[in-house]
Amino acid sequence: xxxxxxxxxxxxxxxxxxxxxxxxxxxxxxxxxxxxxxxxxxxxxxxxxxxxxxxxxxxxxxxxxxxxxxxxxxxxxxxxxxxxxxxxxxxxxxxxxxxxxxxxxxxxxxxxxxxxxxxxxxxxxxxxxxxxxxxxxxxxxxxxxxxxxxxxxxxxxxxxxxxxxxxxxxxxxxxxxxxxxxxxxxxxxxxxxxxxxxxxxxxxxxxxxxxxxxxxxxxxxxxxxxxxxxxxxxxxxxxxxxxxxxxxxxxxxxxxxxxxxxxxxxxxxxxxxxxxxxxxxxxxxxxxxxxxxxxxxxxxxxxxxxxxxxxxxxxxxxxxxxxxxxxxxxxxxxxxxxxxxxxxxxxxxxxxxxxxxxxxxxxxxxxxxxxxxxxxxxxxxxxxxxxxxxxxxxxxxxxxxxxxxxxxxxxxxxxx
Length: 416
What we know:
Elements: H1 2-11, H2 15-30, H3 32-44, H4 47-74, H5 78-99, H6 107-116, H7 119-134, H8 139-167, H9 170-189, H10 207-220, H11 222-251, H12 259-276, H13 278-281, H14 286-302, H15 310-321, H16 325-338, H17 344-373, H18 375-394, H19 406-415
Helix pairs in contact: 2-8, 2-9, 3-4, 3-8, 3-9, 4-6, 4-7, 4-10, 4-17, 5-6, 5-7, 5-9, 7-17, 8-9, 8-12, 8-16, 10-11, 10-17, 11-12, 11-16, 11-17, 11-18, 12-15, 12-16, 14-15, 14-16, 14-18, 17-18
């Protein structure tokens, strides 16, 4: 069944093209986790400043997400809004190349704000159109590919950035990111598939109506509330890794640029498990799947400091990533199934806003925390956040599983 679903999905009009576009776009974006941090570190000598600027690039989307998501729901063309975000991102990257190390430090977070202020337009736009491109009958498999696309971005982007920095410079890595971003922007501008939307869903007439209804739905719909709470804490831990990975690389005797390989290792593990363990994962309820996976991941991160060289560290990171794939797919599927069709842009963008805020919090706090308490304690904090997200997931009611793939619900019934 899995192979048949995969073939049917990849044969759907526009889906393979859509998957390639969003994967490459996200890979270019994840390059910034390495290239941006290392550019700032090399030019300013401050890891804390690098973390603060990266957080500034993430945080604005947390504020603008609900409004921009509502704009996606009422706008005549989502495609134009996605292109707008891509253009602003390119301009901000160019400004960072010009001003980093040559302007006062306070200028750099402002550039970071410009980099991320419209990002919910892309994330919300991509997520909103995916159910129409994939088709409801294949939505479960599409979310497995969605998770794979996110993880592939973290494999290719940071690893590519780390390799370019090691071989050339951080400036060259930023230049490659800009080139890829420009190509993707043109491709999206020419692809009408990004304007698809539900045929029968009653779209809100005004932005404020979409904001009000979407935000209220996040609290009113139990499955969405549980999903957002679990996901927010989980993403905070990932945000800390932006700073923790370079520090961890240095602690095992490697160069800071090896952080790119660590991102690739954890994402590779997640991608492999999303496909290889999909059938087994669907037999579990989301409460058990997500809670159990995050619990073991937290324990896994706690033992990372035991590594004494880069090879061992990469193996430990990879093993931790293997636990992430199916649970990440379950969280995405639960969110989509619990979201009213006419509010996808607003709710998906608000979800991204919460993720951005949580990631920014983790990134901004990781630098000072590491300076004060060391790398081992920072990794311990990451582990603690994963354990906390596991507790939230384990606290979900079984009825909250109604938003996850149909196969999961059937599997749960068989286990009762």
